[in-house]
């Protein structure tokens, strides 16, 4: 355990739905901060305004709260290092970019988008990697400053070293050595005066005193650029941790939009909001995503407290993780069984309500032990237990007809069942089992047939929680009425 309190941050761009990858990065950041008594920060990276999607920022904040990963500093909670939204920090980046220009580490670039496009096309034709051709790098700085002062449209580019190598250190991968001639003079400040990620994230991580940068492995490509920027400022570097990428279930490549849509049809998703709506628990989602990239036993069931205790950046793995939704189901079902009954009741309630059912809390609490073992996701509660809250059920005539019997015989069973039930002041497991077993014995019908007719009549479904316990909860009037309705249907 590190003694130094870590300051970590999740820095999503509000450009779409909150992805599983963001949730996992946030989780690791949170674990490290909590374990060391540090802080976990939310920073909104909204400088690419063309890609900003209304509502996306809110979805991130809601998603983190739903996951229980409450940040200590952020746009809506404040903090000593704000603002936490990059568009509100633009002067800071402009100042910092100017510092780099003044120290000779950056330069204004006046090339038009059309010209850059031409250059790119030529390079592609020659099968070269597209990169800036350096035209403005060689301008006389005094001349460049005059053009800037005259109001000419320009960007600021970072001047990467042209010789030698850049050595960048990733905590999971060790030293990464890159030939500087492979690097590109990237734009760090755009014509609209807003920074690109390369500048904004480096400046903010420094200003916000971030000690550990956890981010996706897709940033490895520009990692050498980033360390060059930090070194040009003369700042200390954070510990860099590039997290493994997620692959689609087959392990071959990233999940496409089409595959994501397929997964959704199957009750799974790579988006946090969907997972919540589909009835996954935060505990299940966190446990599952934690293990994609963290080298502990694959089936380790852990609460958030246990994760805080056990987490270590040394046991993170750089190898890509294939998304496995069966494991998500497994972890979710496991965590459902670990929840106290009243907590589980509170969590399933919205799923009943969403179906238009009126839920009685006392009744719900009684149902929990009957349905808990059957739930993979919270919304399964409706399929198994919706009949508890319905005024009436509507089984089909076919469903009421028992296996290998006809309507006439099934009717006979329903009528007999009614007689037995009517004679009993209360039905529960003890009082119900004996007379019905006797009836099975004497009638020659098998138990599956007798209980099958009764189950469909009372619950409207072929699979249900234990029958007599369920009847005890729904009450005498209701089950008698339902059996009577089944009799009418079978006639
Ligand atoms: N805004 C970047 C993204 O969404 C953040 C990367 C980082 O964590 O530095 O990918």
Summary, kept brief:
This protein has 491 residues and is mainly α. It has 3 domains: 88-243, Rossmann fold (3-Layer(aba) Sandwich); 257-339, Glutamyl-trna Synthetase, Domain 2 (Glutamyl-tRNA Synthetase, domain 2), CATH 1.10.1160.10; 342-490, Arc Repressor Mutant, subunit A, CATH 1.10.10.
Ordered list of secondary-structure elements with their pairings:
Elements: E1 7-10, H1 20-36, E2 39-42, H2 56-67, H3 90-102, E3 106-109, H4 113-125, H5 141-149, E4 155-158, E5 165-170, E6 174-179, E7 187-189, H6 197-207, E8 212-216, H7 223-233, E9 239-243, E10 246-247, H8 257-265, H9 272-277, H10 282-290, H11 304-310, E11 321-322, H12 325-338, H13 341-354, H14 361-371, H15 380-385, H16 397-400, H17 407-423, H18 429-443, H19 447-459, H20 467-474, H21 476-490
Parallel strand pairs: 1-2, 8-9, 10-11
Antiparallel strand pairs: 3-4, 4-7, 5-6
Helix pairs in contact: 1-11, 6-7, 10-12, 13-14, 14-20, 17-18, 17-19, 17-21, 19-21
This protein binds glutamic acid.
């Amino acid at each position: 355990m590190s003694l130094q309190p870590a300051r970590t941050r999740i820095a999503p761009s509000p450009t779409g739905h909150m992805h599983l990858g963001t949730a996992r990065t946030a989780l690791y950041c949170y674990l490290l901060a909590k374990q060391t008594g540090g802080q976990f920060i939310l920073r909104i990276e909204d400088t690419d305004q063309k890609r900003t999607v209304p509502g996306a920022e809110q979805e991130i904040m809601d998603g983190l709260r739903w996951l229980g990963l409450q940040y200590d500093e952020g746009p809506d909670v404040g903090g000593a290092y704000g603002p936490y939204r990059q568009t509100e920090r633009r002067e800071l980046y402009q100042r910092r970019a100017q510092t780099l220009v003044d120290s000779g580490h950056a330069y204004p670039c006046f090339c038009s988008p059309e010209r850059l496009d031409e250059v790119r096309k030529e390079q592609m034709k020659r099968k070269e990697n597209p990169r800036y051709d350096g035209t403005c790098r060689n301008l006389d700085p005094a001349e460049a400053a005059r053009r800037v002062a005259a109001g000419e449209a320009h960007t600021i580019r970072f001047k990467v070293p042209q010789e030698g190598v850049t050595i960048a250190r990733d905590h999971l991968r060790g030293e990464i050595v890159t030939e500087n001639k492979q690097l590109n003079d990237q734009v760090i400040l755009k014509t609209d005066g807003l920074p690109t990620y390369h500048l904004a994230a480096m400046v903010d991580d420094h200003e916000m005193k971030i000690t550990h940068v956890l981010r996706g492995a897709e940033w490895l490509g520009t990692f050498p650029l980033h360390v060059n920027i930090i070194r040009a400022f003369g700042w200390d570097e954070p510990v860099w941790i590039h997290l493994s990428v997620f692959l689609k279930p087959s392990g071959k490549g990233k999940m496409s939009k089409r595959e994501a849509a397929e997964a959704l049809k199957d009750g799974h998703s790579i988006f946090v909001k969907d997972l919540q709506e589909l009835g996954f628990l935060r505990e299940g989602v966190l446990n599952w995503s934690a293990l994609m990239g963290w080298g502990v036993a694959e089936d380790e069931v852990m609460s958030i407290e246990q994760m805080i205790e056990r987490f270590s950046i040394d046991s993170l793995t750089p190898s890509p993780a294939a998304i496995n939704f069966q494991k998500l189901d497994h972890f979710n079902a496991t965590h459902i069984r670990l929840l106290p009954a009243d907590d589980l009741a509170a969590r399933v309630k919205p799923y009943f309500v969403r179906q238009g059912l009126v839920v009685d809390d006392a009744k719900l609490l009684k149902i929990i032990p009957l349905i808990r073992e059957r739930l993979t996701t919270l919304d399964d509660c409706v399929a198994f237990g919706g009949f508890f809250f319905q005024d009436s059920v509507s089984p089909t005539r076919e469903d009421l007809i028992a296996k290998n019997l006809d309507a006439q015989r099934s009717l006979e069973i329903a009528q007999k069942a009614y007689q037995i039930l009517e004679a009993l002041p209360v039905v529960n497991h003890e009082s119900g089992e004996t007379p019905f077993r006797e009836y099975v014995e004497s009638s020659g019908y098998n138990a599956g047939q007798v209980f099958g007719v009764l189950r469909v009549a009372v619950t409207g479904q072929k699979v249900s929680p234990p029958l007599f316990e369920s009847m005890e909860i729904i009450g005498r009037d209701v089950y008698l009425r339902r059996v009577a309705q089944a009799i009418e249907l079978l006639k």
